[in-house]
Amino acid sequence: MNVTTARPLGSDKLLSLESLRGLAALSVALFHFDVGSHLNSTLTARAWMMVDLFFVLSGFVIALTYRDKILRLPDLAVFQWKRFKRLYPLHVTMLLIFLGIEVLKWVVGHLNIAQANNPPFSSNDLGSFVQNLLLIQAWVSPQMTWNFPSWSISAEFYTYLIFGIFFLIAKRSLGLLLPLLAVTIIASGLALAGQFGTDINLFPFRCLYAFGIGVVGQILFARYALAGTLRTSTTAAVMLIATVLLVTLGTTAFGSPAFPAIPLVFCALILSLAATCEDAVVIRIASLRPLVHLGTISYGVYMIHAAVWWVYRQVAIMVLHAPSSVNGEGMVTIKFESPLTADAFTLSGLALTVLLAHLSYTYLETRFYRSSRSARPKPVLGAERPAS
To answer: Alpha-carbon distance 211 to 4, whole Å?
Structure first.
């Protein structure tokens, strides 16, 4: 998920992107908790693709905000420090919560109360803890550990730095920036298409590629002055339908030769929404305050939902005695016999996740991100992209 700050609320064309981010974050949360609910569908079963949407959106918004502002090394340092303050407080908080979960698993097992399907401190060991602490896990290991959605935060944090350096080198010159983007996008796309073999860690390439696509999208958006050029909702609606069909019916798998096409479709969706005038129906709907706020707190939704689902799985197994199994990746899966029970369980978990995300945004994230703590927090465009 991407945590980016573009403009204050008030630009409906950008608010539509905020709402898009929030809905995508919810779909990722549902992707990670399939218990047989009516909310679980073919769409949510493939919602891992939404992480790539977050990367594209992040590239678009970062370029929109900073492409012409990073001209000196101090500018780059300030930019990266802002990214750190936006991302790290919640990341390290969730990392410590998952450390507590591992300790709890060890204590419960040591007292012979219950045995965890995944032994404590097995994959979540000291080495992976240090990697997560330094936010380098996505760059050094293809395994998801601890608060597993944070792999995308790791990938994105250093991608910010790489593209910030690109902006610094280019100094507003597209003649310098475009070759850097082309090399990055082409090389990353080839890696994702399997041209460099299947044994490499694809996490960084996945972020670099989609983020670069988003930057190119913003360049096209600015170069051709697309803001407000679409007077009706038709184009945006068509792209929304195309995106849903891509996610729902597509057969493209992560790492397949066709995979690099996915971020291109997402970029077209983002451009269509950003280019649609504020009076269009689709923008008015996307600018509804609840949807916008969901986007504002979507970083919390993305980072917190894995811990909520861990607790819910324990309740389902130990209290409700729901049937469970362990898949090939060591993840515990649950299927309630009653879809209505699954619905209630899932909805309550989503509600708790959204509540915790709201509290996190209000009392944790803005406390560090805002330069003035005395100022009353106001929603801003930007929440990190959920990950799969």
So the answer is: 12
Which residues are CB-neighbours of 271 under 8 A, at least 6 positions away?
217, 220, 221, 226
Residue 93 structure tokens: 């908080």
DSSP one-letter code for 372:
-
Burial of 253 (0-12, 13-18, 19+ CB in 10 A): exposed
Which tokens is 230 given?
């679409």
Helix (H) or strand (E) holding 346: helix 339-360
Question: What would the two tokens of residue 356 be?
Answer: 């915790």
Encode the chain (388 residues) as per-residue pLDDT tens digits.
Answer: 655 543 433 344 478 899 999 999 999 998 888 877 878 777 777 888 889 999 999 999 999 999 999 999 999 999 999 999 999 999 999 999 999 998 998 888 777 766 666 777 778 889 999 999 999 999 998 888 899 999 999 999 999 999 999 999 998 888 999 999 999 999 999 888 876 666 788 889 999 999 999 999 999 999 888 888 889 999 999 999 988 888 777 656 666 677 888 899 999 999 999 999 888 998 899 889 999 999 999 999 999 999 999 998 888 888 877 777 766 666 677 777 788 888 888 899 999 999 999 999 999 988 876 643 333 334 333 333 433 4
Q: Which conformational region is residue 5 in: left (phi greater than 0), alpha (psi within -120 to 50 degrees), or beta?
A: beta
The closest alpha carbon to 303, from 117, 180, 148, belongs to: 148
The span from the CA of 154 to the CA of 147, in Å, is: 11
Q: How far apart are CA 204 and CA 151, in angstroms?
A: 9
The residue ranges of every structural domain in the chain are 12-369
- What are the residues whose beta carbons fall under 8 Å from the beta carbon of 177, sequence distance 6 or more? 67, 166, 167, 169, 170, 219
- Kindly report the number of other CB atoms within 10 A of residue 32's CB atom: 19
Over its C-alpha atoms, the chain yields an Rg (Å, rounded) of 21
Burial class (CB in 10 A: 0-12, 13-18, 19+), 380: buried
Burial class of residue 314, CB neighbours in 10 A (0-12, 13-18, 19+) = middle
Distance (Å, whole) CA 92 – CA 98: 10
In 3D space, the residue among 385, 207, 244, 211 whose CA is nearest the CA of residue 301 turns out to be 385
Residues forming beta bridges with residue 380, ordered by sequence position: 8
Both tokens of 268, joined, read 């077209």
Tell me the pTM.
0.85
196: nearest Cα among 185, 187, 184: 187
